[in-house]
Write a structure and sequence with these properties.
This protein is mainly alpha-helical. The protein has a domain of 89 residues. 65% of the residues lie in helices and 3% in strands.
Length: 133
Amino acid sequence: MKTIPTVVLILSGSVVAAACSASHPTPPPATALTARVTAADAVNTIASARCDRETRCKTESADTASVERCRISEKRDLDKDFGDNTDCANGVSQDELNNCVAKLHAEGCGAVGVVTEGLQTSMACGSGHLCMR
């Protein structure tokens, strides 16, 4: 007689355990978060990197006034590009901005390849490529 209640107890425990494990819904997959900066921060970073290259290649004087004029000029051009892109309201990808700056730092100073490097860098550093959608 003891075996029937024991079997019933074991079976009911198994049913409850199975029901409890099935009642937990699977959580949705985590959304990947992407590090981002504001368009204004991106403009400042790119302008600084471009002017650093100009100074390194000696196309701009290294004195403070010349560097500041370069940054103002670069920021003005970049503001036009980034300001017209409504996608920039979502920010700029930090990874893509880092890639842009790395390309600017890697650009050579000589005439050979400047056009191709400049075109590739312009594409990598433009609002169409950097702004989050």
